[in-house]
Amino acid sequence: MTTVELTIDHLGVRGDGIAQNDQGPIYIPFTLKGEHVSANVSNSRGDVLQILDASPSRVTPICKHFGECGGCATQHMNAETYSDWKLSIVKDALQKADIDTPIEMISDCQVGERRRVTLTANKTNKGTELGYHKAASNHLIAIEECPVASRRIVDHLSHINDVARILTLHSKPAHLTITSLDNGLDIAVSAETRIGESEIQAVIKKVVAGRVIKRLAFNDQTLVETEALTTSFGDITVYPPSGSFLQASKRAELLMVDIVSKHLKSSKKVADLFSGCGTFTFPLAKKSQVHAVEMSGAALNTIDNAFRIQQGLKQITTERRDLARRPLMRDELKHFQGVVFDPPRAGAETQAKQLARSVVKKIAAVSCNPITLARDLTILTGGGFKIKSITAIDQFLFSAHVEVVALLERK
Q1: What percent of the chain stands above pLDDT 90?
Q2: Which of 63, 69, 109, 368 is catalytic?
Q3: Side-chain half-sphere CA neighbours of 34 within 13 A
Q4: What is d(CA 243, CA 222) in angstroms, rounded to the nearest whole number?
Q5: Which of 7, 73, 4 has its CA nearest to residue 42?
Q6: What is the pLDDT of residues 320-348, one digit of tens each?
């Protein structure tokens, strides 16, 4: 490791400042363009020792764990620099794919709105620690606060840690996916260990006494559920299964739903691909018949059950299918005028190839990965679609992730 002075040339897609030296680019976290810094450098990575000349864009981070905890990368940027950097992530990915459609950036998500987080619990000589890993490290940073997370999650970190303490019997860590739903917390724990009946009874007692955790599952087995947890898509109430996927921010979800619904409102039949529990399914079913396709049987059961008890919706049908391996084919797609897809980070390449060959008129492509989205958009435009608009939504505050909604229609 060598101590050097460097000037930051620009920001990378992960939020690191990037400087140049004789050996090539050096990536230095928590720095800003134009700053002159002293850093310890090893290979292509550096750790700041001192900011010798600070950027006027630098601000005081809002969390005391920032710089150690790997959950956030960019709390040191002012609002303008932060928004420009987020937009650049999407722009760079699309430009590399020769997509030059203007991008609207929406950055109005606020602190305290992240309703889904994954924390790690480790058993140590001092007890159980609960927190996030340091960036690019296995070292756990125990947290006492998390300004980006839902207030309900933060206010009950101590209680969540008490639950984790019962479930972390061995040296191997446990991972807690914590979701704040309308009426309480849902916690899904995954671990490489087993627990016995005494631990199950102890954790049930702890959950019941605390009242805020309404459901707790361990390695896909529900240990306790004191109340049916609910969320809403539009004005439709659903009962999501344990650990189910939801958009990170309710505000961002509503923005995405509004964009997608307006685009597909004239489509008599819509295919909702990678539908999850119905984020887009139910709002779209106000005006269109919707066929929801998803690999998770539990998620589809959630859609079916909610549809049966709701009024004022068009027909909703469901199909369990792994769209990465078995996409809806061109002949199957001929029944739909509109399609929305919201795949995992790997994107929807296989499905996009079938859509490109189809007679579908309108598509809403939703993605949390601009790189795979750019690939999928290239496939679709190569099949005769025209990109109508691209909107970037910052629902992953202070991180290098950004949600994107692209609207397409046949030329």
Answers
A1: 93
A2: 368
A3: 7
A4: 10
A5: 4
A6: 999 999 999 999 999 999 999 999 999 99
Listing DSSP states for 144-208 in one string gives: S--TTB-HHHHHTHHHHHHHHHHH--SSS-EEEEEEEETTEEEEEEEESS---HHHHHHHHHHHH
Q: What is the pLDDT of residues 82-137, one digit of tens each?
A: 999 999 999 999 999 999 999 999 987 899 999 999 999 999 888 899 999 998 78
* Maximum CA extent, the chain: 67
Cα(202)–Cα(163) distance, rounded to whole angstroms?
Answer: 9
Q: Where are the beta strands (DSSP E) in 30-147?
A: 36-42, 45-53, 103-106, 116-124, 127-133, 140-142
pLDDT digits 0-9 by tens, 346-360: 999 999 999 999 999
What span, in angstroms and rounded, lies between the C-alpha atoms of 116 and 153? 9
Q: H-helix or E-strand containing 20?
A: strand 17-21
Q: Which two tokens stand for residue 93?
A: 């990915």
How far apart CA 119 and CA 274 sit, in angstroms, is: 25
Q: How is residue 359 written in tokens?
A: 């007679």
In this structure, the strands spanning 221-225 and 2-11 are unpaired
**249/256 Cα distance (integer angstroms):** 11
* 277 annotated active-site: no
What the block records as the tokens of 244 is: 């189910």
Distance CA 407, CA 350 (A): 19
Structural domains in the chain, sorted by start: 2-58 (2.40.50.140), 86-110+246-410 (3.40.50.150), 116-225 (2.40.50.1070)
Residue whose token pair is 């859609």: 303
- Select from 391, 292, 403 the least CA-distant residue to 339: 292
Residue 223 backbone class (left: φ over 0; alpha: ψ -120 to 50; beta: rest): alpha
Output the pTM of the full model: 0.94
